[in-house]
Amino acid sequence: MSDHKIVEVAAGILIDREGRFLLGSRPAGKPYAGYWEFPGGKLEAGETAHQALARELVEELGVTITAATPWIVQTFTYPHATVRLHFFRVTGWLGDPHPHEGQQFAWQRVGALNVSPILPANGPILRGLALPDTLAISAAHRLGRENWLHRLDHALAHDLSMLVLREPQLDLEHYGALAAETVSRARRHGCRVLLHGALEQVGPLVAATGANGLHLSAREAAALRHRPHGFDWLGVSTHNATELTVAQRIGADYALLGHVAPTASHPDQPPLGWEGFAATVDHGWPLPVYALGGLDAHDVAQAKASGGHGVAMLSAVWA
Ligand SMILES: Nc1nc2c([nH]c(=O)n2[C@@H]2O[C@H](COP(=O)(O)OP(=O)(O)OP(=O)(O)O)[C@@H](O)[C@H]2O)c(=O)[nH]1
Ligand SMILES: [Mg+2]
């Protein structure tokens, strides 16, 4: 087999109403028999990834998909082949999954897997599944510290599960104090907090405050060759494919891409629009991409239909 040939594969993450996802065991006789995987298989000549997904899910599980959105694209080199996996999130299908190829099935929860081993390429996929549909960006710079903290409590009580603390107006001392306060409030609600800023300055605050990770600007990310150590979660803000390539290079867990709609924070720059967003994401990134800029929770479906993971919100969360 040639090392240069890339095998294109479509795989479906069936997600049920309880948020569980389906894994299947690879049947005997295939490479990695017994490993757990997302149902799917190789694209046939002339097929799009979506068409291959639909065909494979009929063949392997006997289900007809009615709602599937492109999610992330992961390239992985196995001893037997290099595969490019086009993952879709499948939220609608007809029929119940039946093992047509002698596989076993297991409905799994994020962070609580009870089957193993899974295919080596799928580790990052499981991390991506742990990211919420919406994340929030802080607004103490607009609302004032006390007012924002007050609204933060309200949002935390209403299921806010991930927050980027971006307050560039604060010096390091004040930022550190706000970070400590924010983390202590968020932790009680199980909300992840990522600190925003340069690796050298803000990086040490992550461990000091017990925050969950670091979020870098595109410029800060571009200065790095590798993923910095010591951060459970790492995010990057991006505006185009070049910056997404940087986020990919440093192994970020997610990227923000924007701005999608016109926004008060960047009145001078033209928005990407959903078309521009979709065209940029369509390149196929190995990390989940959130749409950002003038959006709210009602835009999640549009973001997913455009190949995004979900929506990053600023103003809408704190209104
Ligand atoms: N279906 C699937 N394949 C995956 C996943 N992760 C991953 O690395 N792969 C790799 O993608 C490649 C193709 O998958 P496949 O064996 O399901 O292909 P297929 O259904 O067309 O099988 P066939 O060739 O027997 O007809 C394999 O090398 C497999 O190891 C995954 O989550 N799901
Ligand atoms: Mg298969």
UniProtKB/TrEMBL annotation:
Keywords: DNA damage, DNA repair, DNA replication, Hydrolase, Magnesium, Metal-binding, Mutator protein. Its EC number is 3.6.1.55. It is an enzyme of class 3 (hydrolase). Its cofactor is Mg(2+). It catalyses: 8-oxo-GTP + H2O = 8-oxo-GMP + diphosphate + H(+); 8-oxo-dGTP + H2O = 8-oxo-dGMP + diphosphate + H(+). Residues 5-133 form the Nudix hydrolase domain. GO terms for biological process: DNA repair; DNA replication; thiamine biosynthetic process. InterPro entries: Aldolase_TIM, MutT-like, Nudix_hydrolase, NUDIX_hydrolase-like_dom_sf, NUDIX_hydrolase_CS, NUDIX_hydrolase_dom, ThiamineP_synth_sf, ThiamineP_synth_TenI. SUPFAM superfamilies: Nudix, Thiamin phosphate synthase. It holds the Pfam family TMP-TENI. One of its GO terms (molecular function) is 8-oxo-7,8-dihydrodeoxyguanosine triphosphate pyrophosphatase activity. Belongs to the Nudix hydrolase family. PANTHER family: 8-OXO-DGTP DIPHOSPHATASE, NUDIX HYDROLASE FAMILY PROTEIN. This is 8-oxo-dGTP diphosphatase.
